[in-house]
Amino acid sequence: MCFRPPSTSGSIKCPDCGTQNASDAKVCENCGAELPDAPSVPKAPSAPKAPVVPKAPGAPMAPSAPAVPKAPK
Predict the structure, then answer these.
(1) CA distances from 45 to 20, 42, 48, 49 (A)
(2) Rounded Cα distance, 55 and 38, in Å
(3) Of 11, 56, 1, nearest to 38 (Cα)?
(4) Distance between CA atoms of residues 43 and 64, nearest Å
């Protein structure tokens, strides 16, 4: 099944009688009812923001050398 968005072929449907009117018409050519403004095309959504990347931990410290034993007395 195919779902199509409403056509934007440059016409406005009268809310009272259903007649298709030119997109720049202010009143219906059939019944004279006031027409709504032309439907605008929805704006495309913006791209998602990049995720926050945590900082890398610092480099590990080098182990300290063992203490030198004292000479016997």
Answers:
(1) 30, 9, 9, 12
(2) 50
(3) 11
(4) 61
pLDDT tens for each residue of 28-48: 999 999 988 765 566 788 888
pLDDT-derived band of residue 4, with 50, 70 and 90 as boundaries?
Answer: low
Nearest 5°: CA angle at 16, between 42 and 33? 90
Would you mind telling me the total number of residues written for the chain in this entry?
A: 73
Cβ-contact 36, 14 below 8 angstroms: no
What are 19's two structure tokens?
A: 């007649």
Averaged pLDDT for residues 4-32: 82
DSSP string, 15-47: TTT--EEETT-SB-TTT-PBPPPPPPPPPPPPP
d(C-alpha 36, C-alpha 15), whole Å: 8
